[in-house]
Design a protein that fits this description.
By secondary structure, the protein is an alpha/beta fold. The protein is built from 7 helices and 6 strands, in the order E-H-E-H-E-H-E-H-E-H-E-H-H.
Length: about 240
């Protein structure tokens, strides 16, 4: 059984879709939550659902691409709960179209949310984890990062950048007893996740709760736990990761 009792999790993009499912699932496993996204009304609805289960939830309206906004998010988290045990960098956006049709504003928006956002969140949260010599950072990527499809240039570039950042961070943070994990979900059944015909991940679709269940399972592993390749494959196969 997944057990996150006593843990505090900060989830970005928590107002809907995968982030909402992760937050609800973590609360069900015993965690207290800090919910971050741009939409305050949607965050309040998710917080109410969590509090109805007897767990605590704080909301932090946040633009993850904005440095000051991210700093306020972390300040809210620490002021409310005094700690952050788990950071889930889930907030994301997309752009689908030929590179020649994209604008600098499109590039900045996708990179700002998908790459700058996780970097800013990590930069604010990691020092607290290092000081406590404990923590888990989960970066949500996409299995499409290793594929090539027309129209996906900006999205794939942002996720490839996040993959590189995750690899380096995993090595640097290991000495401080902070774990860093990258998740590569396939196509997820959300308004954001559905891709056009011809996209390599057009179908089949994962359910948001399937993704959330795996996140909670990983977060529940004790420090130093080793997941065998066989176990990884047994997870990937039914969930198409």
């Amino acid at each position: 059984m997944a057990n996150l009792n006593g843990q505090v999790a900060l989830v970005t993009g928590a107002s809907r879709g995968i982030g909402q499912a992760i937050a609800l699932r973590m609360a069900g496993a015993g965690a207290d939550l800090v919910l971050a996204a741009r939409s305050q009304p949607q965050l309040q609805a998710v917080a109410a659902a969590i509090e109805a289960t007897g767990h605590r939830a704080a909301i932090a309206p946040t633009d993850v691409a904005d440095e000051a906004s991210v700093a306020r998010m972390v300040q809210t988290s620490l002021a409310t709960f005094g700690r952050i045990d788990i950071l889930v960098n889930n907030a994301g956006t997309n752009y689908h179209g030929p590179l020649l049709d994209s604008s600098v504003a499109d590039f900045d928006r996708v990179m700002g949310i998908n790459l700058r956002g996780p970097y800013l969140c990590i930069r604010e949260v990691l020092p607290h984890m290092v000081a406590r010599r404990s923590g888990l950072i989960i970066n949500v990527l996409s299995r499409a990062v290793n594929r090539v499809y027309e129209g996906g240039g900006l999205y794939l570039a942002s996720k490839a950048g996040l993959l590189g950042l995750t690899k380096v961070l995993a090595r640097e943070a290991q000495a401080h007893n902070v774990r860093v994990v990258a998740l590569f979900p396939g196509q997820v059944d959300t308004a954001f996740g559905r891709k056009p015909e011809g996209h390599p991940d057009h179908a089949p679709y994962l359910k948001t709760d399937e993704v959330a269940a795996l996140v909670v399972a990983l977060a529940s592993l004790p420090p130093g736990a080793v997941v065998s390749q066989a176990a990884i494959e047994s997870i990937r196969q039914p969930l198409r990761w």
